[in-house]
Each structure stands twice: as structure tokens, then as C-alpha cells.
Amino acid sequence: MNARLPPLGAFRAFEAAVRHLSFKKAAEELHVTPAAISHQIKALEDHLGVQLFERLPRAVGVTDPARAMLPKVREAFECLSVAIERGQMRPDTGKLSVSAPPSFASHWLMPRLHKFAALHPGVDLSLSSRANLIDKSGGEGLELGEGAAEVFIRYGGSQQYQGCRVKALFTPTYLPACRPEFLKGENALLEVADIARYTLIHDDTIPDEADRPSWDAWLRAAGVTEVDASRGPHFSDGGLALEAAIDGLGIVLALKPLVDADVAAGRLVFPFDITLPTHAAYYLAVPEAVAERRAVTDFCNWLIEEARAVEMGMQRELADVVS
Predict the structure, then answer these.
(1) What is the pLDDT of residue 142?
(2) Is 207 a residue whose pLDDT tops 70?
(3) Distance of CA 111 to CAs 135, 155, 260, 264, Å?
(4) What domains lie within the chain, and their CATH numbers?
(5) Sign of the CA dihedral running 43, 49, 53, 57
(6) Whole-angstrom distance, CA of residue 275 vs CA of residue 272
(7) What mean pLDDT, rounded, does the chain reach?
């Protein structure tokens, strides 16, 4: 046998001709002329010293040597495809890009990132925060895969992100939050009706009340009818609304898990334990193309564990209230 291999094009012509049992159809598939296919097949036969096809008046037949070759030829093309895919893959470095909604990034993720950094010091994490990572009901969601982000954290009522592995992190609840000083002094916030004396801060990030309850909904649940729920400043960014409450501007209707760190640090308190549920949740969405990268799996596993601790904490709090 000749040590020198025939041209790759000859094997492509051979495989296509066997599959179609036609030089003409093989030529159409490979965008060449039937004469070119015939020439490549003849060159391959001369190189191997065997006949691969029987030239019939209106078709071609496959010989035994061709049948013996075909499985390995196809296997070789499959191996080449895998080699090309691996060659086009980006190296599995320690760099990781994460995108999250603003309030989640600043008030929930940031206070915890030091734990991830301690567990995985070799991962260089880049965190970006954009409001369009919030799925507004009835609106168009972000096309996952845009930009450089490899891990997306989304808030909304949908978990249908095409081409991604999706995991629900936790479903938050809403309740009022304010500065601790509001519970002291002559105008202390002691009863729900006392809210009438304070400024209401509105988070307009999500207009749909199913995903983001309003002050009007909370006051109705609390049995308060004398308060104008529309008064007070409005913010289009949930992070800004929380910062306004931390600065003492008024009372904000906050996502419970997102302000736990601020409560623990003494920047905010929950004056009342009346909560409102929501149909929305935080989701982790990872494009399939990067789901197996080491930095991605390390971050996702850590994030899921942190979220599980949040869910367990909320369940314990609910059990304490019920009991």
C-alpha cells in the first residue's frame, strides 16, 4: 500500500457518491461537475489499485472494497469534525463573566462574592449589571449569548431561555424596609397606620404587579385605606430605590433576600412582617456552549448553594410565623 494518502477531496467525492449512488447527485452536493467527481473517484481507484464503483448505464454500483472502506471513511470525517470543533473552542481559562440585575448584583451578590473568591482564588470574575436582565411581563427578553457574559442571572416570571441550562435560584417576597431610626422618637413607626407620616419610595423597575407588587397592594393587604399609595419619589432602578431608603429618604417595598445584608449591617430594618408573594423568581441561565467550563461550573455550583441557603432561611421564617 502507498504510504502517501490520497487527497481529502477524493474521499469526500467517494463518500458522497456511495451515499447517493450517483456521481451527478454527489457533484450537486459538493458544488462541482459530475466530470470532476468521476475524475476524483478514478484517481482514488488508481491509488488503491481496486475498483470502487461499477459504471452502469444509468447509475453506479458499489463494489465490495468500497463497502469495506465506507465505515472508516465516515468515521474519519466525524473525527475531523470533532477536531475542528475542539480547535475553535476558547481555552478553558479562569476568566468568568457574570451579568445580573442591578439590585441583585449590588445588594445580594456583592456581599457574598468574597466567599466565592476565597474558595476559587484562580477565577478572575467580571461582573456587569444591566436593567434589561429583568424580564418585564409581555416584553421581549434579552437574547442570551449577546456580549461577553457567560453566566446570566435573570429576574422574571419565565424560565424559557433558548440554548441555555436554567436553574431557579429563589422566589423572593416583598415587605417594607426603612432606616432603624424610623422606629424611634416622637414619630416612631410602630403601627402600620403610622406609614401615613412617612415618604413612600417606589421601585418602577417592573410595572407588572404580578412580578413586582406595588405599595397600593401592600397597604390593602395590611388593611390600611387612609394612605395615598401613589405619593413619594419613583425610581426606575431597584438599586437606587434601596439606596434612597438606606439614606433615610423614606420607606421602600423591598425584596426580602436582597436586603438581608443591609438589615444585618444595621442599615435597614423591617418594621412589619406583612409580606407579599410574587410570581417572579431569580433564575440562573448558562448557555450550553460554555456550561462545562471549569470556572462556569465552579461559580454556578457555589451560587446554587448560596441560593439554597436563602430558600431554607425563608422557609424557617415562614414556619416561625405560622407556629
Answers:
(1) 41
(2) no
(3) 24, 19, 10, 11
(4) 8-88 (1.10.10.10), 95-170+280-322 (3.40.190.10), 174-264 (3.40.190.10)
(5) positive
(6) 8
(7) 84
